[in-house]
Amino acid sequence: MASRMLHTAGITGVGMSFPERRLTNADLEKMVDTDDAWIVERTGIRERRLVEPGTGASHHGALAARQALEHAGVTAAEVDLIIVPTVTPDMVFPATACIIQHEIGAVNAWGFDLEGACSGFIFALQNARAQVEAGHAKRVLVIGTEIMSSITDYGDRNSCILFGDGAGAVLVERIEPERVGIIDAINRVDGVGIRFLHQKAGGSVMPASAETVANNLHTVYQEGRDVYKFAVKGMAGVTAEIVERNGMTGADVDLFVPHQANIRIIEAAQQRLGLPDSKVMITIDRFGNTTSASIPSALRVACDEGRLREGHNVVLCAFGAGFTWGACLMRWAAR
Ligand code: COA
User: Fold this and answer.
1) Average pLDDT over residues 129-135
2) Which residues pair with residue 96 across a beta bridge?
3) Is residue 143 part of a domain?
4) Which domain holds residue 301?
5) From the CB of 225, is ligand 1 less than 6 Å away?
6) Is 121 in a helix, a strand, or coil?
7) Catalytic residue among 25, 98, 118, 187
8) When you count CB atoms within 10 A of the terminal residue's CB, does the N or C end of the chain come out lower?
């Protein structure tokens, strides 16, 4: 749909932060009935990072945000808005955005958290873009940060192998129109997915009680096989759609940065576009699925590895609980 935009928005800085502690597949072999070969073959994951208990999502979120600001050469006081996509906020309220605002000294910013599960970063990015394009904000921090270990059942081999903790952040800024920046986005939800992937207790339907704790209802519930089928269809479909509707093909894409949930889901989207491995960011081997942190942290890894340069055509895509999914096409604007 055509929209009236006054300004151009682009990503000008990226940051990430991960805890030091590693949980390897060998560690998991001692905890549940699984093995390294199965995990690597079925998911592509070799290890994930875990915080020490008591560390909130704001901790690594603030560190990632600081790095993104430094990359962009912008001070915290120049930020207008902070959006924090997360399913593992420090507290149910207030928003983790408030905690990070205070921590980094973004004294002129307002902010809020956004719940889009593994698509949270894509959804937040579209919000940041809209604020900048409409002229309501010049600089927006989008900080995907998760402590997935706080909602993971380490007795359930179906899900505990998947998740990790960490954070990634980007600064979305008003840029000169000739630098192009964010070109297009597609965002979708379909509540048909609710029953396959959710956390049963801790919300208003089933508040925390001795019983919910005893029955282990405060962790991720997932019917993995069903989620997998929807995820392959959703990620591959939306990625192809955004490229094609902008008159491009896989050959025009310089870097594809998908949400890191499962290597096989990523490969399905990669094949749909006919992309060589050199154009696909993979970080799932070292970080696992970090939900809303996976795309922004993968962008930072891409910068550090010299795989992202100003002017590159970049495609992001994600799929997550809800179901939620989406994609974003941009001309890379960070220097
Ligand atoms: N180690 C060894 N075996 C395991 C295992 C583990 N950690 N976890 C499951 N298995 C077993 C299952 O019990 C099953 O055994 P059975 O056939 O005797 O019942 C067998 O392996 C196959 O299970 P299945 O669920 O079909 O495996 P899969 O190939 O679908 O892989 C997931 C499981 C979870 C890795 C995969 O479904 C997945 O990635 N789903 C999407 C997850 C996701 O992306 N979630 C976040 C949303 S973005």
Assistant:
1) 97
2) none
3) yes
4) 182-331
5) yes
6) helix
7) 118
8) N
pLDDT at 149 over 80: yes
**Binding site membership of 43 for ligand 1 (Cβ less than 6 Å):** yes
- The pLDDT value recorded for residue 58 is 98
Residue 98 among the catalytic residues: no
DSSP codes of every residue in 211-280: HHHHTT-SSEEE-HHHHHHHHHHHHHHHHHHHHHTTT--GGG-SEEEE--S-HHHHHHHHHHHT--GGGB
Q: Read off the CATH number of the domain in which 320 is found.
A: 3.40.47.10
112 Cβ inside 6 Å of ligand 1: no
Q: For residues 287 and 199, is the Cβ–Cβ distance under 8 A?
A: no
Rounded Cα distance, 25 and 283, in Å: 15
Can you read off the two tokens belonging to residue 2? 């055509």
Per-residue pLDDT tens digits for 286-305: 999 999 999 999 999 999 99
Say whether pTM exceeds 0.85. Answer: yes
The mean predicted confidence, pLDDT, of the chain is: 97
Q: State the number of CA atoms in the 13 A half-sphere of 153 facing the CB.
A: 18
Asked if residue 114 and residue 24 are part of one domain, the reply reads: yes
Which SS3 state, helix, strand or coil, does residue 295 take? helix
- Ligand 1 mutation target, pool 28, 42, 317, most atoms within 8 A of CB: 42
The CB of 228 under 6 Å from ligand 1? The reply is: yes
Q: What percent of the chain has pLDDT over 70?
A: 99
Query: In terms of Cα–Cα distance, which of 162, 149, 185 is closest to 11?
Result: 185
Is 289 an active-site residue? yes
- Pair 51, 136 in one domain: yes
3-state secondary structure of 167: strand
Q: Is 246 a catalytic residue?
A: no
- Give the tens place of pLDDT for each residue, 47-99: 999 999 999 999 999 999 999 999 999 999 999 999 999 999 999 999 999 99
Q: What local confidence, expressed as pLDDT, does residue 5 receive?
A: 83
Let me know whether 62 and 17 are in one domain: yes
The active-site residue out of 259, 262, 313, 317 is 259
pLDDT, mean of residues 226-251: 96
The pLDDT score that the predictor gives to residue 166 is 98
Q: In a 3-state reduction of DSSP, which class is residue 56?
A: coil
